[in-house]
């Protein structure tokens, strides 16, 4: 039985990846390693937590010894590495947390894998999940490809860029069987309400202002989280060692257009008068160093591995809103904790 380690599996994307691997591969044992930061939530996985091919391991990837011990104990055959500090605004307030988890944590995992695999790398794989933000910010035209030069501009994207470089260095220097993917903005069920879409859904539901940074003209390329998880499955199994694959939704929206669409969907699903939720839109002080536009060219992944997004945004956003409305208890558990403090810190002076 293959033993696959998924890091950050209690988070947003990680939980969808864990579920997909546990359900699709009964011949694998899936180990979900997560330290359960504010973003980690085992409620995301209640439907699969009792499966016989699933084990949760509470551990911190910044703890070099603990990570090495777990690799020695379980002898993982493959790693899908998602654990990270993931929110740009938090990286502006506290960059060091991002350096520790995203850079040192990744190196600890690489070192531990190398220690147990060094005599035989056959059939092993270290898959590092990264972001399109490493490529920097686009102007009005153009797309990020796998050969676009790195130009990260936030502490978050810089820490992810650094970890990508280190993963590639382990391929070239030690022959580690690595693969990397860089994905655009994800949306869907289980996303922590610090990110734009779930934050806006929660505020609209509660008739609170929807904070839009600057003029709302920044552009993001949105992909439904399950389509990302499907791409991860494909790349983990079929990707070439040493290669990078870009993953994107071919789905660009300015933030303000997206919020208009979201308001329309929510008015409909909440039975509100048309145009009611739009009144909550509030322009606030811009994010420092706010990247203007991200957009991904996924043609390598589509042509070489046959991936394509399964959901159009119009359908995905309705599914997403329905999920949040049907899972109010999930949201309540989050917003009743430290979230209130976070929200005040981030938004009171904007
Ligand atoms: P998330 O913040 O929802 O989840 C991160 C998870 O990692 C949490 O469960 C957290 O507890 C865990 N974690 C954090 N620090 C840890 C540590 N020191 N040790 C062990 N576990 C730790 O993040 P997400 O949005 O699901 O993103 C997952 C990965 O995908 C990240 O690597 C991120 O850079 C990448 N990514 C995210 C997006 C996006 O739109 N969200 C897009 C592209 C790439
Ligand atoms: P976010 O979801 O934080 O993702 P990222 O910064 O990784 O792209 O933000 C998406 C876009 O929405 C980004 O341009 C910043 C903007 N934004 C707001 O306008 N208001 C908000 O309250 C948040 C969280 C984000």
Task: Tell me what the structure shows.
This protein is of the alpha/beta class. It has 2 domains: 212 residues, NAD(P)-binding Rossmann-like Domain (Rossmann fold, 3-Layer(aba) Sandwich); 93 residues, UDP-galactose 4-epimerase, domain 1, CATH 3.90.25.10. 43% of the residues lie in helices and 16% in strands. The protein contains 12 helices and 13 strands. The strands form 4 sheets. It has a 7-stranded parallel β-sheet with strand order 3-2-1-4-5-6-11, sandwiched between helices. The chain is globular, with a radius of gyration of 20 Å. It starts with a strand and ends with a helix. The model has no long low-confidence stretch (mean pLDDT 98). Nicotinamide-adenine-dinucleotide binds next to helix 1, helix 4 and strand 5.
What labels would you give this structure?
350 residues; alpha/beta; Rossmann fold; UDP-galactose 4-epimerase, domain 1; 2 domains; 7-stranded parallel β-sheet; two-stranded parallel ribbon; 43% helix; globular; binds nicotinamide-adenine-dinucleotide; binds thymidine-5'-diphosphate
Short description:
The protein has helices spanning 12-24, 64-74, 88-93, 95-117, 155-174, 196-205, 225-238, 255-270, 299-305, 313-326, 328-335, 339-347; strands at residues 2-7, 28-34, 54-58, 78-81, 125-131, 178-183, 186-187, 210-213, 219-221, 223-224, 244-247, 252-254, 281-284. It is of the alpha/beta class.
